[in-house]
Amino acid sequence: MGSKEEEFQKRLLSTFKIEAGDHLKTISAGLLEIERMESPEGHLETVETIFRASHNMKGAARAVNMRDIEAICQSLEDVFDMWKQEGINRSSEVFDLLYHSLDVIRMLLSPLDGKEITIDGNKVSNLIERLSGIKTMRIYDTISFTRGESLLNKETILMSDADVVRIPLARISSLLLQAEELLSVKLLSSQHSADIREVADMFEIFKNELKKVCSKDESFNRVEGHIKSMERRLLTIKKSVQQYSRSLNRMVDNLLDDTKMVMMSPVSTVLEGFPLLVRNISNEQGKAVDLIIQGGGIEADRRILEGIKDPLIHIVRNCIDHGIERPEDRISLKKAEKGTIKIIVSQLDNRKLEILITDDGMGIDINMVRASAVSAGIISQEEADSLSEYEAMSLIFHSGVSTTPVITDISGRGLGLAIVREKIEKLNGSIILESHLHRGASFRIILPLTIATFRGVTVCVSGHIFVIPLINIEQVIRVKRDDLKTVENKETITLDNRPLSFVRLSGVLELTNIKRKTEDQDFIPVLILNGLDKRIAFGVDEIMKEDEFFVKGLGRQLLRVKNIEGAALLGSGKPVPVLNVTDLIRSVLKGSYATPELMAPEEKGVKPGKGSILVVEDSITSRILLKNILESAGYSVKTAVDGIDAITTLKTGDFDLIVSDIEMPRMDGFDLTAKIRGDERLDELPVVLVTALEKREDRERGIEEGANAYIVKSSFDQGNLLEVIRRLI
Amino acid sequence: MDWEEIYRRIENVRLAIEQGFQPTGEALQRILGERAKILAGGAEDKSERGEYLEVAEFLLAHERYAIETRHIREVYSVTDLTPIPCTPPFVFGIINVRGEIVSVIDIKKFFDLPEKGITDLNKAIILQSKDIEIGILVDAVLGVRNIFITELEGSLPTLTGIREEYLKGITKERQVILDAEKLLSDRRIIVDEKVQL
Fold first, then answer.
1. pLDDT tens digits, A274-288
2. Which terminus of chain B has fewer Cβ atoms in its 10 Å neighbourhood, N or C?
3. Which residue of B lies nearest to A465 if distances are taken between CA atoms?
4. Which stretches of A580-668 are DSSP H helices?
5. What topology is assigned to B52-189 in CATH?
């Protein structure tokens, strides 16, 4: 069949593609470096590098029988060889042609991805002819170039052979995923350690109590030995669990750190394409721009770098499009003819990465920003006038605000910077814009170096658990229910003698506001959260504990969910939503949340522990669903899996109401109802049938057997069920 | 003991066994002919019925549906489902599949399948394409079988009430094959919302 050979050929080609990609990067970075060097001296080394890269690529292309690439590489090699001998021909025409040849090679490589691109054979021979023409051109241009940092990362070139192993990103990602998963094992083991300590303490108390009560008893002597040996065992287990937990902690932390290191790449990997990008855009717009990159060697998590790439491209495009003036305008403004864009990367001491993008262009006109925000309806004229310069400048990140009157294909729609900020916020970073009219603008982006664990607080709201990042929590307090004051129909609390808006988290999250029976009803646990320079008090049902978490995405279907940042895993492996506090505050400011029903009269009627209910249901999901709904509403709930089970359970305790399914194994809901009605002790017990059976005769039969209410599952909603129960108990 | 008799019996048995392994020429022809028929018949049958879909059948609210297995990454037993607030009604929530968060949806709501109320959704069929993975909650997975394309009827949307666009086909036994490809590439399934001030 030869399929093995085909397979081999395929593998060979994909290896070649990766190798060729590397060579192409080296050559284009080298060309850019040469193009902008001030003096022809000192770049012999770079020419040597790109000469060698084209030579190697030529050899590799021959090995996989890619003749066109081989021929182009041969011509490139000839040009670079000539440069080595006779010096560099630096007309931009020559460089255009060289970049073009790299593009053609890329195109020739792309069919290997499965994309079908047919390239005219003439195109290649034409290109080769033009490349050989370079040798006869002798135009040396003398435009001066500003010097930046070398784009060729010397270290990676040195390391490229024996010490580096290429591993597909997907495999590393899966490794990281597994390492991150261990964090929940770590949390669980700490939990166990705490549990066993508690048990040991309980045992100690039990032992002492027992001694007090019956130490003079003869029987005490008999059990004393047992108690002693149990105590010894317990203490041994406690010790070993604690030891195990400690060493597990250390191992998991080390493993995570090392895995995170694997994910680190230099920032330059993202900035690679930028010089070419700047060159192309500025050529298109007839502008002259130099790009200077500093600090590209600083390393950060690859996922952060991937996420920052598009925003950076956008900002740089913006700088060229809106910032840098045309050469003639710059001259009349007494500026250097060529504009400069700098990308300066530096590492801040708090494990943060700073990327500063500055241009020396015309800057941003703050009054135009104000005017645009007013005309886009984001703020009113009075508000615009009262904004400080800094506040007004941050308006540029709102969608719909743009200072460009003309919409180009690059920018001007006023969407760009809004998306930029959002992407950066998603990476847990921030962006600030500073601008001086006519002197330029600078964007300062702060990002975390690694996708790190964060500390967060778990809270319980309407029966759901959420994680709130500690960084957004200013204070945690308990507020007396009576201290809630309504101001202009909005609830407020007083903190340090200052009023503060109060909202219920359940309302903001659009959760049904069912009351839990909390131990001290007189107090509401409250978190003071901050974001967008605002503080708002959020009431929850319960504040659980503080812990360490990872934020994970919600999967590729839930790209972005209002008020939810992502998910974190609890020790049990259960995923819980992590709240996006900035979004929460936005939601509150917007007023798009359910009004608090704190004062609603029907809510007041709900007392804790108001009744016990037996849920009879054969499906586990439905059973748990019903149990949760009823428990959240303050009832105590027991469950049974079918009619027979229910009869047994009814004998063991007192119930105020039964909620039962109809279709169940062994004994169905109709028979159960009949049985209950036939029992002297139970014939007053209200029965609610919840069922998928929708037929009229079923409903009639249910009533006939003595059911008090009949709820069809398809029209099921919990408000309805609770209402019915409230009427029956 | 009559040893002679025993030896003779053993010898008879030996002969009988040897003969049993060597059928006569006629019997041999017959057996080979039957085998050839079976083999040839199978091939003929296959070419006649043509291409087939491999589907996984599942139960959802007491009704049987099927989805092509080539879109299925795995079937996962759901022990813990976390609802996500502020999402459209067709989103059930998220589950943790070995450290990876996968969202699960209610295809009844999304496909406009007839609502039959609360069911026993404890299995997630995780569908995957190049761009997305998503879990659909079902009551039970019944198994995998092949359905020949020639057996598939076109759409009979009135039969089930499902939106026609998500129907891959209906078998003669009125089994509905859902089009997972359509589902996975449907932009409406993507949740991408934020709070605008």
1. 888 888 888 888 888
2. N
3. B82
4. 581-590, 601-604, 620-632, 643-652
5. OB fold (Dihydrolipoamide Acetyltransferase, E2P) (2.40.50)
